[in-house]
Description:
2 copies of one chain form a homodimer. The first copy, chain A, has 310 residues and is α/β, with parallel strands linked by helices. Chain A contains 14 helices and 9 strands.
Amino acid sequence: xxxxxxxxxxxxxxxxxxxxxxxxxxxxxxxxxxxxxxxxxxxxxxxxxxxxxxxxxxxxxxxxxxxxxxxxxxxxxxxxxxxxxxxxxxxxxxxxxxxxxxxxxxxxxxxxxxxxxxxxxxxxxxxxxxxxxxxxxxxxxxxxxxxxxxxxxxxxxxxxxxxxxxxxxxxxxxxxxxxxxxxxxxxxxxxxxxxxxxxxxxxxxxxxxxxxxxxxxxxxxxxxxxxxxxxxxxxxxxxxxxxxxxxxxxxxxxxxxxxxxxxxxxxxxxxxxxxxxxxxxxxxxxxxxxxxxxxxxxxxxxxxxxxxxx
Amino acid sequence: xxxxxxxxxxxxxxxxxxxxxxxxxxxxxxxxxxxxxxxxxxxxxxxxxxxxxxxxxxxxxxxxxxxxxxxxxxxxxxxxxxxxxxxxxxxxxxxxxxxxxxxxxxxxxxxxxxxxxxxxxxxxxxxxxxxxxxxxxxxxxxxxxxxxxxxxxxxxxxxxxxxxxxxxxxxxxxxxxxxxxxxxxxxxxxxxxxxxxxxxxxxxxxxxxxxxxxxxxxxxxxxxxxxxxxxxxxxxxxxxxxxxxxxxxxxxxxxxxxxxxxxxxxxxxxxxxxxxxxxxxxxxxxxxxxxxxxxxxxxxxxxxxxxxxx
Lengths: 310, 310
């Protein structure tokens, strides 16, 4: 099979989009494409989650393969690498029906090696497969301000510019297949360090008898500052642990990063500790809380009842 | 002895300042007060370091006690808690000569308990002692953009406003004696988490074959962002490990935070790991490098020669 098909020409009037996965992120991202004037055919495991998209004009399809049969560019954003594998490489997966010249874009945070495998299988069929995980959370997905980290064929990535622009504020091609996934795991490794620091620092401040809001005034805007501190610190102080970003998804991401690191013979002791602490967070019943629930687990380790603190 | 003397009235025309310690931070901070029109009497262990201040009009004194004899408000910013103790509580220390109604301000990052001890000893003599460590580095000290974290008598802290304004962009009273030190240790705990995350993330990115500058474009401005990433990440990538902020001073600060945490029965596993990693940084000969030299030690653990990488 010859490589790299001609990059698609993207136009709301003619380009048929497919969308697989309508979770918190996917539903908002697809909605932005619909709002930008694109047609889309949608599949998701729980049909009711797609209803807002159908109400906005999307077509329903009964499987990834059925989505793909009606589409030129197919996006997926699902749960775990095993879901990505099934959606794209499974018997009723996208590659079973997508025509040569089509494009696959997986936006799930998933294994870099799986992205490489899908890209290779796609190339066999004259299809370009792109990995494009995102950062920016539900808020960024709704507002179209995501950071999209992209791996795959350069010309194809460039050709999809109008679609990236509809979903993200920042989109950067990081390299060939898998590079988007690697960049996302870099992103999550950063967040892990920041979260441990924020939780331990605020816990220290509490035990030292400081007023936490007053402490934030001193430390938020200087050399100790971070997005995590400015955005999640106040929620921790308020005792509001609603997700944002689920603990169980962050655990998945850290697991992927550590798995890759092992494969690369790389020791990441800070991330490994962070992941262990998040296992404690999940074990304490907070798997479906926001990532800032790390505070609850760290507090409990030292016998502090964070939610009942004076 | 009665408590809380009348807060001083600060005026460049009449207030006599004392300044003890002319290291990288202290020299710049005192220079800002001189530039704001204040008179100052200066002592530092190595007289040559004070020369720029003397050239700018400051008077030299031969000891902390001699500084204090000529001053109404005396600042100190020295190295370690033992230096703070000697400067203020020693035989030739400030408290041996400062008159009732005077004010001591220690801006060293030091033990909260020592700040409490000095404040109590000062109060016996009708002197207010304030702890006011800073964040913002040499750049912030020069530009007068420091964050000053303050503990001590409320009226006295308020009365010193013109002096805080000359040195800092943000100054916040965190509570009574020691609270400024606690807030600074909160600040350093945050930085520890951020630094571990930044180094491990960039090391991962390198091993994964990503272009590091391109990765920064994806991860710097979103949920993974931090001051450490934006300001020190590029220096790590460039292989420039000049201080900024010395590894050996950061080790001191983390040691203080962990010592306090032990005293408070508080487990800070992330900070403890970070401190251990920084001991490795120092052991590898980087005690006088910038804190971002953590990258060199983490790379070496996994057999990556960061400075010779392709």
